[in-house]
Design a protein that fits this description.
Layout (H helix, E strand, L loop, with lengths): L9 H6 L2 H32 L10 H4 L15 H12 L1
Amino acid sequence: MAFSELGLTEDEFYRTTPRQTYLLELANRRKIDRQWEQTREIAVMIHNMAGKYSKRNITTRQFMELSFDRKAEYPEWTKEEANELILKWSN
């Protein structure tokens, strides 16, 4: 994941802490989510502007539900989970 999705080199990967890697992955996930949301917005605008062909206007969620629509927030690690990962990382 770090090499392909985040574009880190092997040296950069080993120099980053688990927290930094997590934050980079979280930022990448949010960027992808925003791109999907933008695509959905554009599709809904096109649908709603074609008024004579469609019977009703729709909302973005009616058009297509995305995986992050069901989540209230991005998941946060508990202190115990973070400590467990730090211990695994340091071994």
